[in-house]
Amino acid sequence: MNLIEYKARERGIEVEQRDERGTSSSCSVCGHEDEDSRIERGLWKCDRCGVVAHGDVNGADSIR
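and the corresponding structure tokens:
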């Protein structure tokens, strides 16, 4: 158990560990997967729904 899990359990918060693999190739809005969605460093665009976001923010939203 790591420190985050320990502190969370101490306060009654559930922690779920998720693998971040693939989160930068799938849209956090519509779920469309495309390896070519990163236009340039940091810029991510979904060809299906048109959402444009920072690549890391999209990946974090996909995990959430």
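(Above: one complete record from the training split.) The longest helix spans residues 55-63.
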